[in-house]
Amino acid sequence: MADQPDYYKVLGIAPSATQQQIRDAYKRASLKTHPDRVSVDSPERASRTRQFQKVNDAYYTLSDQGRRREYDAARRDHFAGEDDTADEEVPRGAGAFPWSTFGFGGSEQERQGRDSDQFGSVFEEMLREEGLATDEADGQSVPTKKFWSIVGAVSGGALGFIVANVPGALAGAVAGNRLGAVRDAKGKIHVKQQYPSPHPSFHRLRVVRNVVIPDLFESVLQHDEIFPHTIPTMATAAASVYPSLENRPIKDTVCLFDVDETLSPARQPATAEMQELLSQLRHKCAIGYISGSDFAKQQEQLGSSSVPVTSLFDFCFAENGLNAFRLGKPLASTSFIEWLGEEKYQNLVNFTLRYLADIRLPRKRGTFIEFRKGMINISPVGRNATIAERNEFEEYDNVHNVRKTLVEALKKEFPDYGLTYSIGGKISFDVFPTGWDKTYCLRHLEAEKESTGVEYKNIHFFGDKCMPGGNDYEIFSDSRTIGHSVDSPEHTMKLLRELFELS
Q: Which one, 225, 226, 239, 370, has the greatest CB density within 10 A?
């Protein structure tokens, strides 16, 4: 085993990693090292190919429980004297194994066949997880509508780029996406007829999805100074995939969503399943999100480095709608500090910092007061806390009412400032002018009657902090909305499927 790499190190995981962690690490490592990310004549290609093979071998060994047990036993014997790699939880084996025990011996032809089988099955699994493939009765993987949309978008994007540079690429990608979606019904049959067994190109589509498309849009984002119209164009082009607001099948209805614990886990990305469901819903009615957080946080959770969040929703209401976008274009905004005034603002900040300095918590991190355009956000533990530290504070706060006590102190100290205090999420609360709660965004929806003739008579709101004092309470209980209290993104998806007959 001396000449073989430590497969846990190859994947960048601990020897105690779960099977899911191994699978996730493989996805990251395979996409990072894939040789197709560089040109055929690149000097890096040979080293990338070797590294990619190591990653592939590591997953082959560790993804199977039996192979992993044998490997762990041999590895433990080999690394028994090295503290940084020995794993005390792994049962000790009877002795070292020849490397062929794990299936890596044999002729080059046998190895290539094994690699092809492995590579294909892994990528088919990844495609299924992303909704790009389904299993038929005969056990074969076939493309879904989402598959053909991606293929169409890539093809259309490449053609558009050739014809009209960046803007053309975006328009072409959208057009190709629609063509790809239309092709699905026939394409599914075509693939089964032409390729009785899964085609190698189909196995590698995940690389296209995660490498080619992001690289295209990242290139666009990096040149927005040269093409300042590109980002709005991207959002507008994406919106054109859906019927115009006045032509949605359910014309008088809009669905608004809180973000944390409604569309995604707190401060974490939304799942592909949620994104797909929202896309289905957007074909039926208007959709938007409403959050007290700043726009950058929604971009992290709902968009990506290559996809602007404004292209995924008709209405984007950050900071309760003080920072708002409609079909990718910004709407008029207002500043909290201009409304309150510098002197009062500093009084509020100084009092809060002195208060926080005098209390002791299990942990304190950084950024206790975050200034936003329409409010300030106060966090006793600090917004730089990790996920684990956030969870720890939430449990502590549930017992000791740290946030509620601070809110009461602020109300007592500044009774004439005209402020509202709204507790939300796990670690913080918002402070904003009374009336600037989440109902502020409704004025933008009401303006649609004049601009497009659409009157939203049914405004569905989904949120998790709908109790009095929660930051969803005002809009949840407003007479203009139909409120839905949820406890998780999964709960949100369940309600959407029931209310709008989504799949």
A: 239
Tokens of 345: 């603002």
Tell me the C-alpha to C-alpha distance, in Å, between residue 231 and each of 88, 169, 203, 237, 445: 52, 12, 32, 10, 23
57 is catalytic: no
Q: Where in the chain is the domain with CATH 3.30.1240.20?
A: 337-433
Of residues 72, 258, 294, 472, which has the active-site annotation? 258
Domain 245-322+437-500: state its class: alpha beta
Amino acid of residue 450: E
Q: Is 372 annotated as a binding residue?
A: yes
Reported as a single tens digit per residue, the pLDDT across 298-343 is: 998 998 877 899 999 999 999 888 889 999 999 877 788 888 899 9
CB atoms within 10 A of CB 479: 4
When pLDDT is averaged across residues 402-425 and rounded to a whole number, the result is 92
Residue in the structure block whose two tokens are 């208007």: 286
Chain segment 358-399, per-residue pLDDT in tens: 999 999 998 999 988 778 999 999 999 998 999 999 999 999
Active site residue 135: no
Would you mind telling me the total number of residues written for the chain in this entry? Answer: 503
Query: 7-75, superfamily in CATH?
Result: DnaJ domain (1.10.287.110)
Which of 57, 72, 260, 294 is flagged as catalytic? 260
Look up the pTM and report it: 0.47
Superfamily of domain 337-433: Eukaryotic phosphomannomutase, cap domain (3.30.1240.20)
476 labeled part of a ligand binding site: yes
The encoded tokens of residue 68 equal: 């992993």
Provide the 3-class DSSP secondary structure of residue 382.
Answer: coil
Say if residue 117 carries a ligand binding annotation.
no
| Between residues 63 and 148, the one the model is more confident about | 63
Would you say 428 is a known binding-site residue? Answer: yes
